[in-house]
Specification:
This protein is mainly α. It is built from twelve helices and two strands; from the N terminus they run αααββααααααααα. β1 and β2 form a beta hairpin. It is elongated, with a radius of gyration of 21 Å. Keywords: DNA-binding, Transcription, Transcription regulation.
């Protein structure tokens, strides 16, 4: 672990970017003065965290990557599983977090992100008959707002929570009438954010998440009470 931390510190110190190759194993063994097994275990750990990829063959070796929320989602899932927490935990967390994200997004979201948000709303409306596209755009909409909040923690956290609480994976179905209601809520949230109204954006998001919880409580209470488990 100490060696992995040193390797990351050196990546930052050198100013390495995604796609840059790290020194070959021979040079890293000389630089860090450790055994081959220790170095490989440290590199494998960093690969699991998404910091590097290990490419085989001549010219391969460790290559710098950009970590995403995958490792965070896995860690949260395991923590919640061993705490015997139900899926309701994730839904309630979103109810507390996402109104704050929408409020910040109204103040900080760039014009490019705002255009991306509008595109998501429009795409969902055009494809209300397709649940797969609906789910993709639903996740995209909330992702854009989270990252548009200007708070990196919110961006990664909502990515992780949505990975865990994927409606199609835990059995929550969305008939077309419900998809229409969600699309309408997204349109209202977009209008509030586009108007740069923090309070209206927060309230619109709070209403949207509350409607989702009420729908899930009414139609799928057993799903919300299902214990979270790591499925890979």
């Amino acid at each position: 672990m100490l060696l992995a931390q040193q390797i990351v510190a050196d990546i930052n110190r050198r100013g390495n970017h995604v796609g840059d190759r790290l020194p070959p194993e021979r040079l890293m063994l000389e630089e860090y003065q450790v055994g081959r097994g220790t170095l490989r275990e440290s590199l494998r750990f960093l690969e699991l965290q998404g910091v590097i990829s290990l490419r085989p063959g001549p010219g391969g070796g460790p290559v710098v990557e950009r970590p995403d929320s995958t490792a965070l989602a896995t860690s949260l899932t395991l923590l919640l599983q061993f705490a015997n927490a139900p899926f309701r935990t994730i839904a309630e967390s979103r109810a507390g977090l996402e109104p704050v994200m929408a409020q910040l997004a109204a103040e900080r979201m760039s014009d490019e992100q705002l255009a991306d948000l509008k595109a998501s709303v429009d795409t969902m409306k055009r494809h209300l008959g397709d649940q797969r596209i609906f789910l993709e755009e639903n996740k995209r909409f909330h992702d854009v707002i989270a990252h548009g909040s200007g708070n990196a923690m919110f961006g990664y956290l909502i990515d992780a929570l949505l990975d865990i609480l994927d409606g199609s994976a835990i059995g929550i179905d969305y008939p077309e009438v419900r998809r229409e209601a969600v699309q309408d809520a997204h349109a209202q949230i977009y209008e509030a954010i586009a108007s740069r109204d923090p309070l209206a954006s927060s309230q619109a998001m709070a209403d949207h998440i509350d409607q989702y919880l009420r729908y899930a409580e009414r139609k799928f209470p057993d799903v919300l009470n299902e214990p979270i488990s790591w499925t890979g």
